[in-house]
Amino acid sequence: MERDADVIVVGAGFTGLAAAQALVDRGLSVIVLEARAEVGGRVRSFETSDGTRRDAGGQFVCDDMPEVMALVRAARLETVESRWKGAATTVSATPSRRASYRDNPLYARMEAADPTDPALAGLSIADWLDGQDVPAAAKRDFLSMVHGLWCLPADVIPFWYLVDSDRRNTAEMSELQYFLRDSAASLADAMAARLRSHVILSAPVSRIRRREEHVVVETVERQLTARHVLVAVPPVRARDIVQEPPLPVPLARALGCWRSGAVIKILLRYGERFWSPSVSSGVSWEDVGGLYAFDVSLDASHAAFVVFVGGPLALDWRARGRAFIEQTVRARMGELLGADAPEPVEFILHDWTDDRWSGGGYSDVIVDFAAHDAEALLRQGAGRVAFASSELSPSFPTYIEGAIVAGRLAAGQIADALANEDVATAASVERAR
Ligand SMILES: Cc1cc2nc3c(=O)[nH]c(=O)nc-3n(C[C@H](O)[C@H](O)[C@H](O)COP(=O)(O)OP(=O)(O)OC[C@H]3O[C@@H](n4cnc5c(N)ncnc54)[C@H](O)[C@@H]3O)c2cc1C
User: What domain of life is recorded for the organism (predicted)?
Assistant: First the structure.
C-alpha cells in the first residue's frame, strides 16, 4: 500500500524535532505535523522593542546537558553566560540571606530517599515535609522550590515521583549556566531548517487510527498514512487526540495520570544594568513561595530580569488579573533594586497555564500515587503508536535536554521496529517463492 511516510511525528517541540532528525538519519521518510504556526513548543521567543529576541519559555542550558550543548555548537549559536552564582538572595526580614535550594538539608534527604521504598508509596510531598524535623525556614524554601519548579501544589504530587524525577537530573553545576543570545527558539529553528519540507505547521492532529499494517493520522485538512506514528506531545495534550480503536486500558490509564501545572514568565527590560552584583545571581522571596527572579542581561546595555511565578501562586495571581500581576511584580522589583531604580522600559508577560498545545508549567507531573509504571507504558506505546516527550526521558526529564533524549530514544525504537518488519516481510516473500 502507498503511504505518505514511514513515520509521522506529531509535534515539533524539541522531542519531535530530535526524533524526526534521528529517523531521517536512519534513512526513513518522515512528516512532522505541528499544531502551532511555529516550531519549538514550550520553547518560544518574542521580540522586544530594542529588537532583541527573548525567551518566553524554555531558556537555560548547561555544560552537563551534552545533547543540547552539542546541538548549540553544531548550529554555531552564541551562548551568554548567566550571572547565576549558585545561590539566590532571599528577600526576607534577615537581609542578604543567601539560599541555594540544593544547600537545603531537605534536598539531601530527598536525594537519599528511594523512590521504590514502600514506606513512601502513598505520601505526597506535603505529607513527607510534615514528617521532617527541620527549621520552618528550610521547609518553606523547599516548598517554594517545589512550587517554583513543579508548578503544582505539594499535596497533589507523589513524593516518590519527585525523588525519581530529580534523580534523573544529573547536573552537578547550575542548570542556569547559559542561555542563547538569540533565544532557545533559534535552536529549534535551526533543527527545523535541517528538516525543511518534512515539517507541516498549523496542522493539529485530532485523531489517530491504528490499522494492522499502517496508521492513519487526521488533521482538519488532511488524512495521512504511515507505518508508524510518534506522538511527541506532553501526556496531558496527547490524551486530547482521539485514538481508534481506543488505547489498551493500562496505556489509557498511563496517559490519564498526569496533570499540567501553572507558570507565568515575565521579562522586565531595563535601559541599563544599574543594579548591584549581589542581586545578579538571582532572587527569591521569603514571604511568598514559587516566585523567583534572575538577571538575563545580554550585556550592560541590554539589561533584563526574568521573573517566574509558579504553582499555586501563579493560579492565585492570574485569578486577580494581569494588572494585579504587573503592579505586584513592578513593586517587588522596585523594592529590590532600590528607591532610585528606574522603571523597566518593557514588561512582557507569558502565562503558560492551560496553554492550548503544551499544557502548563515546565512539564506535566504524575499525580496518581499508584502510577509507578506510567512512563514505561507510554514509552512502550501500542503497536504502531509510540509516545515521547520531555516528561518521559530517562535523563533530564522536564528539560530541553530531556526532550532531545526522549525523542531520539523513541526514534531509535521505531527505526528498529521498522527494520525488523522489513526483515520479516523479506523472509515471507522469500518463503512464498
Ligand atoms: C516557562 C517555561 C520555562 C522553561 N524553562 C526551561 C529552561 O530554562 N531550561 C530547560 O531545559 N527547560 C525549560 N523548560 C522546559 C522545556 O521547555 C520543555 O521540557 C521542553 O521544551 C519540552 O519539549 P517537548 O518537545 O517534549 O514538548 P513541547 O515543547 O510541549 O512540544 C510539543 C509540541 O507538540 C505540539 N502539539 C501539541 N498537540 C498537538 C497536536 N494535537 N497536533 C500537532 N501538534 C501538537 C505543540 O504545539 C508543541 O509544539 C521551560 C518550560 C516553560 C514552559
Answer: Bacteria
Judgement on whether residues 228 and 98 belong to the same structural domain of the protein? no
Ligand 1 neighbour 389 (Cβ under 6 A): yes
Residue pair 206/219 in contact by the 8 Å Cβ criterion: yes
Residue pLDDT, tens place only, 253-285: 999 999 999 999 999 999 999 998 878 888 999
The CA 273 to ligand 1 mean position distance, Å, reads 30
Among 415, 368, 378, 411, CA closest to 248: 378
- Among the listed residues 59, 171, 152, the one whose alpha carbon sits nearest the alpha carbon of residue 111: 171
Assign residue 155 the CATH number of its domain.
Answer: 3.90.660.10
In a domain, 77, yes or no: no
Which tens digits make up the pLDDT trace of 38-87?
A: 999 999 999 999 999 999 999 999 999 999 999 999 999 999 999 887 77
Query: Within 13 Å and on the Cβ side, how many CA atoms surround 154?
Result: 18
> Within a domain: residue 326?
yes
- Residue 224 C-alpha cell reads as 495521512
Domain that holds residue 211: 5-46+181-258+364-425
Confirm or reject: Cβ of 233 under 6 Å from ligand 1. yes
Angle at 338 between CA 334 and CA 344, to 5 degrees: 40
Q: Torsions phi, psi of 231, nearest 5?
A: -90, 100
